[in-house]
Amino acid sequence: MANWVLRSLARGIRTTRWPRAEETSLGVTPGRPRAATGMSAEAAERCPTAALMPVEHGVAVGFERCVHCQRCRHGATAMPWSGDFEWTGGGPRESVDLPARFRRSLHVRYVDAGACGGCMGEVRLIDAPPYNLHRFGIFITASPRDADVLLVGGPVTEAMRTPVRKAYAAMPDPKRVVAMGVCAINGGVFGASFASAGGVGEVIPVDYVIPGCPPPPLAIIHALLAVTGRAATQVTAEQP
Ligand code: SF4
Ligand code: SF4
Predict the structure, then answer these.
(1) Are 52 and 79 in contact, with CB atoms under 8 Å apart?
(2) CA spacing 20 to 30 A to 39: which of 13, 107, 191, 201?
(3) How far are the Cα atoms of 57, 66, 69 from residue 36, in angstroms, in the given order?
(4) How far is 97 from 234, CA to CA, in rounded Å?
(5) Among 29, 34, 72, which residue has the most ligand 1 atoms within 8 Å of its CB, making it the best to mutate?
(6) pTM score of the predicted model
(7) Which protein residue's CA is at the shortest distance from atom 6 of ligand 1?
(8) What is the C-alpha separation between 190 and 202, in angstroms, rounded?
């Protein structure tokens, strides 16, 4: 019997205790750059997406544009880097609250609207034993007709405009839309073109955004907890 089977039998399945306890395991997040006081404009020049912006007292960060290329992480002008994963920004567009019962019974339909594969790889992990989405009463559903939340990844290719609209229209009210990853927020590395809408918000209304490229599983779970009011949203840009 392989050693890993013996280890699994001995240890059992280890699900993160976050958010009840801090999650410090290695590899659960790539982290992200943070705004820095006193940093020269040279640091911002290394950023290919203008996520780093020189301002009066240092360098600001727009998380919605950071594609995690890591260029700003090393070298003489390295930005400070945090190991957090609670990245969700935004909030509900409608004044209609989700009913309180949704807090422990939320159904999510996810749609690949032209993602590179990275975001979809991460979203598949939220069901896996280390993250165990079901412990929150949150479930992935096969049909938008049963969904309270539409989780969309990718910049929305032309071929996916209509399916995304149809999925949104098929959902019962009240409903929420979460744009997952920078491509879904603003087109990311694909941008807007003859082949890409340049973000989910160009096609259907968006409530919450998860910066990252891709956002790790815990960042996606944080977004779903924010939708149910069980986690606070964060700012999507930071000033020094
Ligand atoms: S990691 Fe993000 S902020 Fe840093 S250079 Fe790359 S895109 Fe810009
Ligand atoms: S945000 Fe990054 S990982 Fe997600 S679809 Fe876009 S390029 Fe891929």
Answers:
(1) yes
(2) 191
(3) 8, 15, 18
(4) 19
(5) 72
(6) 0.94
(7) 69
(8) 14
Dihedral pair phi/psi, residue 152, rounded to 5°: -115, 130
Count, residues in the chain = 240
User: Could you report the per-residue pLDDT of 93-125, keeping only the tens digit for each?
Assistant: 877 778 888 888 999 999 999 999 999 999 999
Task: Show the domains of the chain with their CATH numbers.
Answer: 32-82 (3.30.70.20), 89-233 (3.40.50.12280)
Q: CA 23: distance to chain centroid?
A: 17
The answer to whether the CB of 43 falls within 8 A of the CB of 72 is yes
In this predicted model, what pLDDT tens digit does every residue of 40-56 receive, in sequence order?
889 899 999 999 999 99
For residue 54, cis peptide bond before it (omega within 30 degrees of 0) = no
Nearest-10 crossing angle of helices 217-227, 118-125 = 70
Contact 62, 174 (CB under 8 A): no
User: Mind giving me the DSSP string for 133-174?
Assistant: GGGGTEEE-S-GGG-SEEEEESS-BHHHHHHHHHHHHHSPSS
- The C-alpha angle with vertex 137 and arms to 134 and 141, in degrees rounded to 5, equals 75
Task: Report residues whose beta carbon is within 6 angstroms of any ligand 2 atom.
Answer: 115-116, 118-119, 153-154, 181-183, 188-189, 213-214
